[in-house]
Design goal:
Layout lengths: L1 E4 L4 H12 L5 E4 L7 H6 L7 E3 L5 E2 L2 H11 L9 H30 L7 H23 L7 H16 L1 H6 L2 H13 L1 H4 L6
Helix pairs in contact: 1-3, 1-6, 4-5, 4-6, 6-8
This protein binds glutathione.
Glutathione binds next to helix 1 and helix 3.
Length: about 200
């Protein structure tokens, strides 16, 4: 299997952590989404990473679908299958990824639009969304089980991305989450090696 990814991408980081815990070997293909290259757009018409190319040439996206697939291939080591535990895991994943989606929308506003066109009320809305999600994550991480699940991977990759792009948001505004992230990566150095980096 081959994974179209980039090093700073939080969703790619989550998939790489999942593949690691599922003990699956995946070839990594560095991919710049700005190029809208043929391999990317043929693998994922939406033109986003991560995208997984399976051995038979078929493809999978987005990160949540890829993680589900890897977990099934490996016999469910990271997604509990009992309904309540499954729901708790997937809710935290959706919350962490949704937080990142909002913060990334605010980032993209400044990255991809000329400054005179930046629309502050829209960026403010994204940050209100991200802040609510970060507040909720502070409570959610307290209830996570000891053994890492997909929920831990989503929270860790998403928080590490916030720390990379908006360090003050995590270290200054959410020190409890920053401390959780430090503790998690200290206990799991193999996963720390897969966090988003510039
Ligand atoms: N919901 C998707 C989100 C994927 C996503 O937004 N990926 C970003 C990189 S982390 C991307 O490809 N951005 C390029 C763009 O939006 O043009 C997932 O979980 O895979």
């Amino acid at each position: 299997m081959r994974l179209l990814y980039s090093k700073p991408s939080p969703y790619s980081s989550k998939v790489r952590m999942a593949a690691h815990l599922c003990d699956l070997d995946i070839e990594l293909v560095p991919t710049n989404t700005a190029d809208e290259g043929v391999e990317l757009t043929q693998s994922n018409p939406i033109g986003k990473i991560p995208a997984l190319i399976l051995d038979d040439g078929s493809t999978l996206y987005d990160s949540r679908v890829i993680c589900e697939y890897l977990d099934r291939l490996a016999g469910n080591p990271i997604i509990p299958q009992a309904p309540d535990a499954w729901a708790a895991t997937k809710r935290v994943e959706a919350l962490a990824d949704g937080m990142t989606e909002a913060a990334m929308a605010a980032l993209y506003e400044k990255r991809y639009r000329p400054e005179p066109m930046w629309y502050e009320p829209w960026m403010d809305k994204q940050w209100r969304r991200a802040h609510r999600a970060l507040d909720a994550l502070e409570h959610e991480v307290e209830g996570l089980p000891e053994t890492p699940t997909l929920a831990h991977l989503a929270v860790a990759s998403d928080l590490a991305w916030v720390q990379l792009r908006f360090p003050e948001e995590l270290n200054g505004r959410h020190p409890a989450l920053a401390a959780w992230l430090d503790r998690f990566f200290e206990s799991h150095p193999d996963l720390a090696a897969l966090k988003p980096v510039a």
